Every structure is written in structure tokens, then in C-alpha cells.
Amino acid sequence: MLSLSSISPLKTSPCRTHFPLPSHHRYSFCRFGVRSSYAEAGVKGDSKSATIDVEADVKSERVVVLGGNGFVGSAICKAAVSKGIEVTSLSRSGRPSQSSSWVDQVNWVTGDVFYVNWDEVLVGATAVVSTLGGFGSEEQMKRINGEANVLAVGAAKDYGVPKFILISVHDYNLPQFLLESGYFTGKRKAESEVLSKYPNSGVVLRPGFIYGKRRVDGFEIPLDLIGEPLEKILRATENLTRPLSALPASDLILAPPVSVDDVALAAVNAITDDDFFGIFTIEQIKEAAAKVSV
Ligand SMILES: NC(=O)c1ccc[n+]([C@@H]2O[C@H](COP(=O)([O-])OP(=O)(O)OC[C@H]3O[C@@H](n4cnc5c(N)ncnc54)[C@H](OP(=O)(O)O)[C@@H]3O)[C@@H](O)[C@H]2O)c1
Q1: What value does the mean pLDDT take over residues 204-215?
Q2: Fewer Cβ atoms within 10 Å of its own Cβ: the N or the C terminal residue of the chain?
Q3: 59-81: average pLDDT
């Protein structure tokens, strides 16, 4: 009878990676040596030298996070690194000042999305996650929420990046005239671009208020002190408040907050799951996060 006494990597060198592949993912090929010994009589001598090569396919991801040093972007970089994903961040201020082990594992590129040389960030990427967005004048909001993302989606498509994930926003059930602000028109323009250029892989996450620890000028603002209890209260009173949800703008009060870690995990789920694409609501973001939170 043959018993396998040990299975160990044949060599200590890292897995080789092959490009390009017909599928839109890169795979690493690992070679294992299987050492065998014969436990029963009839076979003399030590046969430990026998080895069998096994080739295992391990999907390897390289994600580019646009705005990886922001509030949501940092959480995405950290979560992605923890799942063994190779991460590059692009932002104007580059590497954040905080010292953490995940920070050392991210490739920090300093640049403006409107002027960057995409060769520096997109070559070989398997996914782009955009956290570009923000407030300001009407023009500024249209530019950063809309034009910046439209530009990034086009660049990702041109470079053959197979997946684009946009951090967008819940519409809060707002009346139409408020949805016509630069913030929301920019977001919806960016969403349309993602869904039209990436019909079978594009992801739009629409969170409401996101809580967690936001760093501003080296200080942490604990948004979770408000967000976490509010999320629990709204969940507990869901049945009572449901009739109110038909009222215009009611979601400003009723839309449950979501933790920054859940948004980050939902993004990681989007990066790693080929079947995850389309528009995702607050509840669906939480469900997606739960799938990869272990
Ligand atoms: N926070 C919330 O409660 C919430 C709720 C719903 C949706 N969202 C959406 O989630 C996304 C992320 O929000 P956040 O709170 O994490 O925002 P944030 O902290 O302000 O992060 C924005 C990131 O974008 C980068 N950035 C801005 N302009 C850039 C440019 N021209 N080129 C390159 N990078 C640029 C910023 O870095 P630099 O300034 O260094 O360039 C920063 O890293 C936004 O789209 C927001 O609308 C947020």
C-alpha cells in the first residue's frame, strides 16, 4: 500500500505567473512535490526520493484603488491586502502618514486622475476600484464625481482591465430637483459609464452614510459612535418605519448607515467574484461583505 507521507512545495521559490490568459484573470501556477513512502513489506529501501509534480491554479489579483488613502479607499486597501490581493493606490497626496503594516504593503502612486500617466498604474491590473468623489461647488462636484470617474472607466477599458468597481451613493429617495445637483448627476453619469463599458462585470455600490474612523489631519474622527447605534436602531424598527419610506427624502433618516469595513469587504467580494456585477443597494452591500468577512 502506498501512503503519502508528506506533501510539500517542491521549491521555496514563489509561484510563477503566466500572461496573458484567455480568461480575464491572471493565475499563479504552484508546483508541489509529493513525497511517498511504502508502508508495507515487498518494497525495500527508502523511496522518499519519489516526487510527483502537481500544478495548482491559484487566482492572483492586482487591484488599483483610485483614492486609496481616503476614508473608504484606506479601508479597501487594508481589506484587499489582508486577502492577499496586490494593491496599488492612486491619489494626489500619495502615501498616508499613518504607520501600519498594511500601508507598507500597498504601492502608493502620487498623481491626479486627470493628468496621470496610466501606464504607471493600470498595466496588468485585474480590477479598478474608484472612490473618487466629494462635495464642493456644482462644477467641482460634477468634475470629481462624474468626469473623473468617466475618465477612469475609459482608461481602464483601454488598458484591458476586466473589472471596474465604483463607490457611488444611495439616492436617499430624494425629490428629483435635489437629485439634479452636481453631486448626484456626477454619480449617475459615472454609474452609466461603468455599466455601459462593463455590462458583464461592472459593479456600482450605493452605500448611504458610511461610518468608521475617519482620519483628518492625523486625528481620528469616530463616526462609528453615531453610525453603529443608528444602524442597530433602524434595523430594530424596520417594520415600524417601512410605511414612511414612500415619503420623499424619508431615506435621509431611514436609510441605514453602513460600516466602512463592510463597504471595503463588499468591494473585495466584487474584486474576487466574477459573478458579482450590477448595482448594489445598502442591504446588498452588507450581504456581499458577509460573504468574505471570515
Ligand atoms: N463617506 C461617506 O459617508 C460616503 C457615503 C456614500 C458614498 N460615499 C462615496 O464614497 C467615495 C469615497 O468617499 P470618502 O468619504 O472615502 O472620500 P475621501 O476620504 O475624500 O476620499 C477621496 C479620495 O479621492 C482622492 N482624490 C480626490 N481627487 C482626486 C484626483 N483628482 N486624483 C486622484 N485622487 C483624487 C483623495 O485623495 P487626494 O485628495 O490625496 O487626491 C482621496 O483619497 C466617494 O465617491 C463618496 O461620494 C461616501
Answers
A1: 93
A2: C
A3: 96
